[in-house]
Specification:
Layout: H1 3-10, H2 25-53, H3 62-84
Helix pairs in contact: 2-3
Amino acid sequence: MTVFEMEGVLRGKAIPADMKVNESLAAYLVRKLADAEARGVEKLADAWASIAARDDGVTKSESLILKYQQRADDARAFAYELREGRA
């Protein structure tokens, strides 16, 4: 959404194309912000998973690898809860 489109939405002159039926503007904005936050958390989870899986010549203990994998799993679970509106 561009700034111009957002101005129209906030002034009541336009309706977002992906707005659900009977959804208020406040609920729409909360849903979109939660979705954006979930995407950021998923990127963080991917980064932690890649750190755990990377073989860069640095010896990592098994507990460190498990810690990064657990962080990635926790982040993915949190992202799912954000998308479902439970967080």
